[in-house]
Amino acid sequence: MKKVIAGLVLLTLGMPVWAATRIVVLSVPGMNCAACPITVKKALDRVPGVSKVEVRLQKREVTVTFDDALASVEALTLATRDAGYPSSQVGSAK
Ligand SMILES: [Cu+2]
Predict the structure, then answer these.
(1) How many A from CA of 86 to the centre of ligand 1?
(2) pTM across the whole model
């Protein structure tokens, strides 16, 4: 438990100074029930460099925070496609 909290603190403190952190919004049209986001999130969490995955089922969108030295939009869309949910980038935020 202590380890988990320490990890979260590190992650929170570390985030703003990562120069290569990128946030992108992916459209995942295949998400159509409450179980889909779990599969999509799992697939994206597994991509090295991904630090945060937020799924909005209603909009069929996923916001992904990742280190672009380790991951890429291509790696993200490949991961969701391999999980059965083709996706494409619809936007980005800093
Ligand atoms: Cu589903």
Answers:
(1) 13
(2) 0.77
